[in-house]
Every structure is written in C-alpha cells, then in structure tokens.
C-alpha cells in the first residue's frame, strides 16, 4: 500500500496500476485498494484503503443485493439533490447516524472540566449580525423572553476576553430563520465578542424542541427505522479565538421530553442547564422584567495546544489498541511502513 | 438488536429508544445501533447495524478530522448534484471503487462455464428501439463497421429462444448517445429477441476505449488518486427471460491498452473476445462486405434457480467463515437470534 510512484512515470498512464482482471468476491478488495492507494499522499492513501475495505466488507457481510444497492444509489442521489444553500441533507444524515458527534469527539477531545462539544447541525450561517454585548438577538414576539448571562474562561479558570461567540437558535415555532422561504434578514442569531472579564450577555427566547427537517430522504429513513426526528430544546454556540481550540457546542434545557433521545445524539450531561428566573436586582441591572427566564452559564475552553496534545495521545493509544501500525503525520494517522 | 417494538407502542414516541446521553468515542456505536435497529424489519435492522458499525469504525481507525469530514460532505453533495436523468454519478462512484462488481458477484454468482457478469455502468437507457434480428443499431458513419453473430444457450448447452437482449455501446468518438446535449433519438443501442435457435445478429461498430465522464467529482477524485479514467473497448449486453437469472454483462475486445486496468474493474478473461474478419461466404449470407470486422460469441445463461441456489450456498458459507450467526430470510442474511 501507499508506494509512491516514480516521478518520471507519466501520471494517469495505465502501467502505473497493477493488472485488474478476473476480480472475485475474495480478491477484489486487495486489487481496488492497490489501484486506489498510489496517490503519493500517505494520508489520502490510508483513507482510501480504509474506505474501500469497509465499504466492501459491508457488502460482503450483508451479501448486499443488487436491489438494495440500487436503493442506496437512489437514496444518496436524493440526499444530494435535497441540498441547497440553506439545507444540508448530508450533514443531517451524518448527524442522525452519530457520525458528526463521533468525529467531533475524535477531533476535538476536551481536557477534564472543559465544556464538551456537540453537533454543529445544518443551520449555522455566516451572515449573523455582530451585536454589542447586551443586545437582543430575537425578533420573535411569540417567544418567551430569556436573558442569557454567560462567561468564558480557559481551563485554568482565567477569563478569556475577545472571544468571538456565534449564537443561534430556532424560533418559538421550532424553525430556524433559513427554513423560511421569504427570509429577508438573519433572525434568532448573532455574533458577540466577550468583554475584558470574559463576559457576554444577550436577550433571546426560550429554546423549544423541534423535529429536524423530516420531509426529505433522511426523514423518510428515520420513519422506516421507527425513530422520532426530534431534538430537545437547545441553543447553539461556537467560540473562536487565536490560540484556543474552536468550540462548537450546544446548551440543552433540562426537562425536555427528548432530552435522552436526541435524534442527532448531541446531549451531554454537562451541557444540560437549569433555567432560573431573573430576580429584582438582576432585572434592574440588565433592563428586563423581574421573573424573566434566565440562562446562566460558564464556558470553559481548551487551548489549541491542549486539544492537539490530547488528540495526538488519544490517536496513538487507539491505533495501538486496534493493532494498527501507524504514525502521525500532521497530527493524523498514516501507516508506519518503517 | 432487532427487538420488535410492541405493536401497542405508538410509533416514533421517545420511550421506544434507549437513552442516549454522554456518548463517547467508545460507546457511541452501540448506542446508535440500538436506536437504529428497532424497525421490526430484521433485514433493515441488520443492514443498519453493519452500516453504522463500519462508518464509525472508519472514523475511529482513521481518526477522521472535522476538515476531512467536511470535505466528504461536500464531495457527496456534489456527487448527488451532478446526477441528472442522463447521468448517474453515484453509480460511477460505486463503479470506480469496485463496489458495483462486488455486488454483482455476490448477487449473481455464475455456475461453472456460464458467462460472467460485469458492470451495468451509467449509460443504459430504457428507450432503445426493439429491432428485428439482422438490423443495424448504428447511425455512426465514422465508426468501423462490425458484424455481430451471437447465440444464447442455457448451462446445458440448449439454445434459448425468446430471450430479450439489450445491447448498447459508445460511438466511434467514445461517447454514448445520452452524453450529447442535443440527443434526438437513441443511437448505438437496441433491443433484440433471440430466435428459435437461440441466435441473434446485428450490425454495429467496432467498440473503442473511452474515459468515463471525468468532469465531475468522481473524475476529480480519480485525478487525486492518480488513476486513469479509461475503460477498455467494450459492448454491453443484458439478457432477460422468465426463468433465467438476468445477466448484465460486457464483451471486451482483446488487445486494448486498458484491458488490464479498467477503471471500473469490469474485465473478466472469459469476456475478452478476439475479433475476426468476415469471409466471402459469411459476407454473402449476412449482406456485409468481405473483410468486415466480425464478433462471434456464445452466451451461456444460468437459470434463476441455479443462481439462487448458488447465492444461498455462497452466503451461508461466507457467513460461517466470517463467524456471523445468521440465517437467510428471502435469500438474504439476517441475524439468527435463536
């Protein structure tokens, strides 16, 4: 595997490939892997070797029928064709099979006590307005007003100023702004920057549970699998600053009926929060009515270096456990051929 | 796995799922499989169990990064969006990774001496004209004329009459009719029915090698992998008749420069044919010029029953070798829970 073709060999000419004739159920995987792992990029070759092996093993272990294969072709085609600038059905597919959570866990492991990550989901946009601290990010008069008082610090508890915080949630009907055909401007989303004390606060509405878009191929699959399509009430956050590991996470409101059955497997205990009510003093301080819902949370962020070290260590340990002889190249495993 | 939910449980209600909170790299697969294998359809549950396991194992064994995952999301989306009524990029993807050949080998195993199968490819259409035996299926004046004299028989050598034969090939420039934007009518394709002696013959052109459509995501992937995108010169056939196993196959012209490196891994030795030249007698008999290229071939077809028995036997043997405790349901493996 992964032998580097001579640079004097013209690219794409037939002789660079070992002969592939008379392939059988038993030898086809080795031959396809040989043909597909000569790019000279050790990481790409390793990804292809693992991909072809798993796809073929799946077909062999299920004795996949032509009819089932064709159903899969149609499903993937429809999934791609459901995607648009405001809808990403393949991310949704990845989410409902737990792949998105798994990849986040692998790529962004958290040191103890740091805020856990969760799924990005398909509704983040890049056009949210940058609002000053204390702003309202809601235009939904039907939503239940909620004040959010948050801080962000590093793993030693030091406040982090100047962190870019991306915040978004569904409206009171359980839809994101991008799900409306007539969307004129961003709503129920904003970007803020933490202050010198690591603080940021904003006005929003109480998150509600909602179904993921279930009128497409992924929704039909969930129905076939007799799985519900709901996410428990939640609010999304992304934290970014030079030197920090980018944190994509979600806070969940405790007590939601879907809290233990999130369709995208995103719930972690330390991301589930209790809502409080604003007292008289806080009401006066932040200019909201007494009794308003209050979300308080402290986010604890790992540095890029902490995450990188943890990821590298986890990777080498896991490769060892799996019995795979690999080394890290740019922090990602490739076969160790020495 | 595969426990059937009580029929009195309302569908899609949260309690039908085991709780999923605090999933980690190590427990997420078991939890997602549990949630995704309660459809009550044992085959679907088994497919999902194997699919989730392989997809997750791929991510764990490669320590898939968020950036790589996102590249895969984009790739799949582009592949879906490249599909149209006349182009199937996902079939092409399956073809270039040998999955199409593997599935055909599993689902349509051939008894000894029967004609082997090969890939369907993305260019079959359902609008080919039904032509009488002896017709020409070409409108390509630039192609080198070729006479094809074929017979079809069963595995005991008995001629098979009334077999529907679907035939298609690329034109002399290496393009199928559907690849032309202005396609008015089918060309270089037809459907014939074998006569009482199992014979069918037609006029066509010499097949040429050509690249698969490489201006899309699959073509870009092949380029990254430093694989050429060519198929050796060939002609496609599908044979269908009640009681016979549907045969999807291809004849390859010996001596092509891509004969041992077909980009879709479709070449089998007993599908590679030598072209002859028409002699004086044959020329007179079939109304072509002496010296015209001649393709002669005898196709030997398995019965539906022969294929089914062989498939079942292969499946049970393979499951045994893999150590999977399965039984066959409608000729497809499902877990044997007894």
UniProtKB/TrEMBL annotation, chains A, B:
Residues 41-113 form the Catechol dioxygenase N-terminal domain. GO terms for biological process: catechol-containing compound metabolic process. Its cofactor is Fe(3+). One of its GO terms (molecular function) is catechol 1,2-dioxygenase activity. The keyword Endoplasmic reticulum does not apply. Keywords: Dioxygenase, Iron, Metal-binding, Oxidoreductase. It comes from the Eukaryota. Residues 136-281 form the Intradiol ring-cleavage dioxygenases domain. It holds the Pfam family Dioxygenase_N. Belongs to the intradiol ring-cleavage dioxygenase family. This is Predicted protein. It comes from Hypocrea jecorina (strain QM6a) (Trichoderma reesei).
């Amino acid at each position: 595997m992964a032998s580097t073709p001579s640079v004097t060999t013209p690219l794409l000419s037939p002789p660079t490939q070992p002969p592939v004739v008379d392939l059988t159920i038993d030898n086809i995987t080795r031959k396809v892997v040989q043909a597909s792992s000569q790019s000279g990029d050790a990481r790409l070759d390793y990804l292809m070797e693992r991909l072809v092996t798993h796809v073929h093993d799946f077909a062999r272990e299920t004795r996949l029928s032509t009819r089932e294969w064709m159903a899969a072709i149609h499903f993937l085609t429809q999934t791609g064709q459901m995607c648009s600038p405001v809808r990403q059905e393949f991310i949704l597919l990845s989410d409902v099979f737990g792949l998105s959570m798994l990849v986040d866990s692998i790529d962004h492991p958290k040191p103890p006590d740091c805020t856990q990550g969760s799924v990005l989901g398909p509704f983040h946009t890049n056009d949210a307005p940058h609002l000053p601290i204390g702003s309202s990010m809601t235009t939904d008069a039907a939503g239940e007003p909620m004040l959010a008082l948050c801080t962000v610090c590093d793993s030693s508890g030091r406040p982090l100023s100047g962190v870019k915080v991306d915040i978004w949630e569904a409206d009171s009907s359980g839809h994101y702004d991008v799900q409306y055909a007539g969307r004129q401007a961003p709503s129920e989303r904003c970007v803020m920057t933490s202050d010198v004390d690591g603080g940021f606060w904003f006005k929003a509405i109480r998150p509600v549970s909602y179904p993921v878009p279930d009128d497409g191929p992924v929704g039909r699959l969930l129905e076939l699998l007799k799985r519900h399509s709901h996410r428990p009430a939640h609010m999304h956050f992304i934290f970014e600053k030079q030197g920090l590991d980018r944190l994509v996470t979600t806070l969940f409101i405790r007590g939601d009926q879907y809290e233990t059955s999130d369709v995208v497997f995103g719930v972690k205990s330390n991301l589930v929060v209790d809502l409080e009510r604003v007292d008289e003093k806080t009401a006066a301080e932040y200019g909201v009515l007494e009794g308003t819902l209050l979300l308080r949370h402290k986010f604890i962020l790992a540095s890029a270096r902490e995450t990188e070290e943890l990821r590298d260590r986890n990777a080498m340990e896991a490769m060892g456990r799996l019995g795979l002889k690999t080394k890290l190249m740019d922090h990602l495993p490739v076969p160790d051929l020495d």
